[in-house]
Amino acid sequence: MPAVKMSWRPTYRSSKFRNVYGKASSREECYEGVPITRNVHDNHFCAVNPKFLAVVTESSGGGSFVVIPIYKTGRVDPHHPKVCGHQGSVLDIKWNPFRDNIIASCSEDCTVRIWEIPDGGLRRNMTEALLVLAGHSRKVGLIEWHPTCSGILFSAGYDGKILLWNLEEGKAVRMFDSHSDVILCMSFNTDGSLLATSCKDKKLRIMDARSGRVLQEADCKRHRVGRVVFLGNMKRVLTTGVSQWNTRQVALWDQEDLSVPISEEEIDGLSGLLFPFYDVDTHMLYLAGKGDGNIRYYEVSPDKPYLQYLMEFSSPAPQKGLGVMPKRGMDVGECEVFRFYKLVTMKGQVEPVSMIVPRRAEKFQDDIYPMTAGTEPALTAEEWLSGINRGPILISLKENYKRPNPAGPKAKRERRALAMKGLDLLENVSPKTDNEFLRMFYRQQDELKRLQKELSDKDERIRQLELELHNLKNVTH
């Protein structure tokens, strides 16, 4: 079956995420004065959860990263304490999905370390780790926590090995050696039973996450794979890479048959690595290029067109890496569905960027916030290693909902300004292209429907009040 090329021409259809827009934070909400690492390794160098922001920093004589309480925005003290126990540069950091105070790091010193950050953050430099995991013969470039099981961590080194660590025992219990070169990316499916990897040997692999047995393999010389991500329960994986014409490309694959991609799409001719982020709750895919200032986003569907282009968040500041807030850290009252923490090296700044569904949240919006993964693990390490698979334990975000405070007219205007190359529905700005004209038209249609509904609700309320007043008069007479 030949690969299907996906069209860039937008086709508009009913979707609650059609008008999602990106909102950059104000300067007061950013983190400034952060000495972001200048390492050229293709990682994000940033990890975030509802408690803490962690960023790999530039340091001499070893590797370090800074941990900042999430609420402490503004300028960071130049002498802010760091986690600095590694003997070489830190290449990757990841927060434990079930315990917000536990973070893992890996380094050029060939070790993986597990740290426990006290509530409120660090008061002095931390050099003693909870666990030091040594098993790789070369530097360790990637780490990933198991998505549903507590105490299981995977690490990938430049020795071409993947080690499966049981942290309850403090040792590696499996070693996968089916890769012939440096592993570039690892991604788990929803229940953590499958592991997808991309490798410098230009091969895409899907493996059994327990045994390391390769279930599917694709030779990607025509589409040089850089990053791979599972698309939830769709039984598909998505890769970003470079085409044979040296253009950046996205490819969609059937996880049970990697013989040929289902579809391919060329993005642009830039050279930076494309980082893919998939939101399993909204079925939205975000593509952010290293060194770019923009983030493109799409809606993913199991049928054609597989990727529906929505819009693009643009910024003049290039991003070195991006951290992603777990869904349980979203501002539900503002209809925020995704949040990036963007590293801007030249400013020494970490800038939050929120993706927002433009609607009035007078109550909890359950259609855009389905049940999502919580902090309770579904399995112990022993259970998972014995062969049991379970999906994540889901929670509702309804408890996070706080009715937004009514703001002044100016703040409302700013919040309603939709980030589509500066186009604002409330201002008299002429669209420059057919696409912009169509998007403005559909947004205005949505706004008109919203105002009509609001007017109808108010009319109904007036009728109710008139009836109550009439009844009250009858009672008094």
Which key features would you list for this structure?
mainly beta; 37% strand; 6-stranded mixed sheet; globular; 33 strands; 3 helices; 5-stranded mixed sheet; 12% helix
Task: Describe what you observe in this structure.
The protein has helices at 381-385, 409-416, 434-476; strands spanning 4-5, 21-24, 31-32, 46-48, 52-57, 63-69, 74-75, 82-86, 90-95, 102-107, 111-116, 131-134, 140-145, 152-157, 162-166, 171-176, 183-188, 194-199, 203-208, 214-219, 224-230, 236-242, 248-254, 263-268, 274-279, 284-289, 295-300, 307-313, 322-324, 336-344, 349-356, 372-373, 394-395. The protein has 477 residues and is mainly β. Strands 2, 3, 7, 29, 30 and 31 form a six-stranded mixed β-sheet that branches. Strands 1-24-23-22-21 form a five-stranded mixed β-sheet, with no helix packed on it. Strands 4-5-6-8 form a four-stranded antiparallel β-sheet, with no helix packed on it. The radius of gyration is 24 Å and the shape is globular.
